[in-house]
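dude i think i finally got it to work??
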Amino acid sequence: MPTIRAAHPITRKPWVRGTPAVAVALLVSAVLTGQTQPPQSSGPTPGAVIESESRITPPPAAYAFANGQTLSYDVEWRLLTAGTATLRLDASGDEERVTASGDSTGVFSVLYPVHDRFDARFDPRTFCSTRITKHTEEGFRRLDTSIRFDYARRQSVLQEKNLKTGASKQDENEIPGCVTDVVSGILYLGSRPLQVGQAYTFPLNNGGKTSDVRARVEGREEIKTPAGAFHTLRVQPEAASGAVRSKGRIWIWYSDDASHIPVQMRARLWWGTLTLRLTRVEKK
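look at this
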């Protein structure tokens, strides 16, 4: 993915355990791993292409990864800036490395401090995730989590340590021959053709049971962000399978060009709506 340029101009706490308001990856994973459930869809658009089989499709031969590019976002809740988030891609040996961060700011950082870090790796030839590590600081919670995808054994291997209590846990769950993770999944979806009316289904694992994610391209929309105005494709991912614990909806607006960068993300949850807006694109 080349560097993106803007298209032609054109009284509850906002925090829920497992869904920090400023963690871009966890905001998306809230839906993709089955933590929220969208209302029933009205059905596919006539003539739409629907990928009913859940699979990870390798990137096209000519696909270019946006290595060295950092995307920065402001996180809004009720028209207030609640935090910041970043998403970056780099080459790392024979793998691609995705790093993401989320931090609360201002009064929100006093009410409920959040400082989350994510480091995910995937095979650029297949888009199969190989591992992801997470450092989570949310309120009084302090966790270090690692998930390794053992395709030879068809298992995800989770190791987690509670930095407050010292307690540790380990868990293994069955996975298919290729999965994506909650961070790389944002980029994987952007690698698809994203034609209006199409839907894509793919397996995502966050250390527990694998969820099948179905993402529908709903339409085109012009989006204005602090980084500029963009022509975008609005995509709604939803958990096609997996345990459901609450209700909500999520959308991702990808730039309507070959790069398909996530320009805006929005999660509408039972306690309110979070919106991530692109503020800056850096290449270095």
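The longest helix spans residues 24-32.
im so relieved honestly
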